C-alpha cells in the first residue's frame, strides 16, 4: 500500500487535480505537476508491491512435528504417514501472504543469510537471485558439466531459524569454518568432527524455474518415470519423452487439447496447458539480467514481461536429526501415480499440480527389493549417472568442509571411516554452508 504523499508546486492559484492509484487519492495543485506526480507514485507502487515481511510457516501445518512421532513412522515403514507430514509442511510453506505470494517467498536469500553480521528486520524487497543449480557448475568450479541441458534457473532460500543459526555461529565465514575444523584434536573420530546442529524449526529450500514466453507456446519437459528408464549417462531433461505446451493467453483449456511443438526435435500431440497451472511471476527489470546471464532454455531471448514458472522445489527441515527431506516437481497429471498419493486438502490451488517424494533416512524404509530408499528430483539428480536410483540425503551426507564434492552418486549411509571424511568437518547435511560461505 502506498501512503499519501504531499507534493508542492511552485505554481499556485491553479485548479486542483487528483490522482487515484489503487485505493489512494492524491491531490496535485497544478496540471504541469500531474505527469510527474503520476510517475513518482507509480514507481512507489511498484516498489511497495515487491516489499515483503518475513512470515514463518503458520500453525496448523504439523510443523515442527513431534520428533519421536516422525522417527516412529520411519522405523515402522509408514510411508503414507511420512508423505502426509511432508505434504502438510508443503501446504504451510505455500500459503498465500496478504500480497499474494507464497510464504516461502518472504524468506531470506543466500546473500542475506550468509552476509557477514547482517541484521534484517521489517519490510524488504523480494529477492530472486537466479543462478544455475550448484549441481551443474562447470569444471573450474567443481564438476565439469557444461552442456546446455545441464542449465536451469535456480535459487535457494532460508527461514529465519536457519539464517540465525548461520549468523550466530559465523558459518558465513570460510575462515571460521577452517578455524573450527583445525581445532579438532588429531585422530578425532569422523562422526565427532562436525559443526553444531541446526535448531529443529530450521528450514532451507531450493527452487528451480523455467522461462515461458509471454506470447506463443512454450514447451516444458515432463517427467514420467514409466517412460524414462535409467540411462547410462543419466536422464537429463532433454532426454525426457514428453513435453507440454504452455499457453499464456488462455486461463482455461480443454484437458484433451494437444498440439505439435518442437523441443530438441518434434514432440507430437503435446498436452496444451494454461500458464495459471504453474506457480510463477512475470520477469521484471530487476531480474532480467540474471535470467539472461544463465544458460537456461530461452534465457538469451528472455524479455521483461516473460514468465518464470516453478518446475521443481526441494525443502529440508531439521525436525529429526538427519532432517526431513521432500522434493516436488510440476506435472500435468498430478493425480495419477504414487507421487501424488496422500496429498491432503490443505494443499490448495496451483500447488495441487505438484508431485512429491520424501525420505527421512538413508537406509529405511527399504524399497521393495530391500535396497535403501530412493528419493530424487527429476529436474536435478536424475541427470547424473544412477541419479534415478539416488537419495537426496546420500548427497547431503557428504556435505563437509573443506571438500566440496558429492559425486559419484551413492545410496545408503557411508562408512564413517570412509577416506572421504578424513580430516573433514561435517556440516549437518547443509551444502549451502560450504557453497555460500565467503
Structural commentary:
This protein is α+β, with helices and mostly antiparallel strands and 438 residues long. 20% of the residues lie in helices and 20% in strands. The protein contains nine helices and 17 strands. Strands 4, 6, 7, 12, 13, 14 and 15 form a seven-stranded antiparallel beta sheet that branches. A four-stranded mixed beta sheet has the order 8-9-11-10, with no helix packed on it. A two-stranded antiparallel ribbon has the order 1-2. A hairpin with a 3-residue loop joins strand 10 and strand 11. The model is unreliable at 1-49 and 132-150 (pLDDT under 50).
Question: What's the SSE blueprint?
Answer:
Layout: E1 17-21, E2 24-28, H1 31-49, E3 51-52, H2 67-75, H3 79-93, E4 108-109, H4 110-113, E5 124-125, E6 153-158, H5 160-169, H6 174-182, E7 203-212, E8 218-222, E9 242-247, E10 258-262, E11 266-274, E12 280-282, H7 285-293, E13 307-317, E14 324-330, E15 354-359, H8 392-396, E16 400-401, E17 425-426, H9 431-436
Tell me the domain tally: 1
Form type = globular
What class do helices, strands and sheet pairing give? alpha+beta
Strand content: 15-25%
How many angstroms separate the termini?
37 Å
Count of DSSP-assigned helices? 9
Biggest sheet record:
7 strands, antiparallel
**Residue ranges: pLDDT <50 for 5 or more in a row?**
1-49, 132-150
Helix content: 10-25%
